[in-house]
Amino acid sequence: MSNATLTEKPDQRPPSSLKGATLPKWFAWAVAAGAVVLGIGISFAAGLDSSIQWALIAAVLFVLGTYGISAKVEGGRQAKDRVATSLVWVAFLLAVIPLASLVWTTIKRGVKVLDGYFLSHSMGVVGDLEPGGGIYHAILGTAEQVGLAAVISVPIGVLTAIYLVEYGRGKLAQAVTFFVDVMTGIPSIVAGLFILSVWVLILDMGPSGFAGSMALTILMIPVVVRSTEEMLKLVPNELREASLALGVPKWRTILKVVLPTSIGGITTGIMLAIARITGETAPVLLLVWGADFINANPFKDAQESLPMYIYLQYSAGTEFSVDRAWAAALTLIAFIMILNLVARGIARWKAPKTGR
Question: Which of 89, 100, 133, 145 is the most buried (most CB within 10 A)?
Fold first, then answer.
């Protein structure tokens, strides 16, 4: 018997595979480029002048093109997946483009007068209709008012959240949760009117930076409570149970286990609360008033702040005052960004180490 008869004939059929036709990785970028070109072409042909209109047309063409080509090549199931991904990207761009436009406009118009002199001088000897002047008094006032509000609200907010998550039971916890929810929706003008009626009108203490800080505290506390509460709930109960099983008291477990585990999220929530109150104008308008001269004492007399400075300068309507308003707005954005970067650094520094 020959070797040919002993050897089985090799299978000539291609190996079976569950993977069908797949579009290349650059497919989405190619469809996006084609959608942009077609969107611009349709806008020119239809006489549309707004860039928002051709951007929306391009977004619709991008989604439709993705689905059509993917359905023909890869099938309906994969096409639906690609459409969902496309919608996510379109929503992301629709959110980022206005933000990027706002930042770019602020930078372009704010750098005209933003320099060392502008940051280190006040408006004490300069009128709103004249060139020159600065925002040192406004930066100082904002830093003191926001700092006092943070010193008051952060301990109250964090301790309240710890109580609600770790100890809160019964009607008292329900009442605290209810009032926190109510305070979350309070308009800033209402908080300012409350402090105005009690502090300025009834107690006759007069306008001051501290009065504005108390109104900002009312706005900041519920944000700190809610964000801290959610971060504490994310800590696994196994960590608490392991610590308690070793005989560690509950207060020490919270201090040494729960808080270090969630410190990153807590810090981020606090920074979000600070960012919210930093740009508030209504309480400052009612309680702090504003001053062209430097007032380093937040507990006496009127004081300036960056939101108030921006409002007053833009309301003046002159070329010089509008430039100062844009420069102050850019400074305010940079101030908030620096606070967020500091918070990120603190959160990374204090976060529990995962490696050995």
Answer: 145
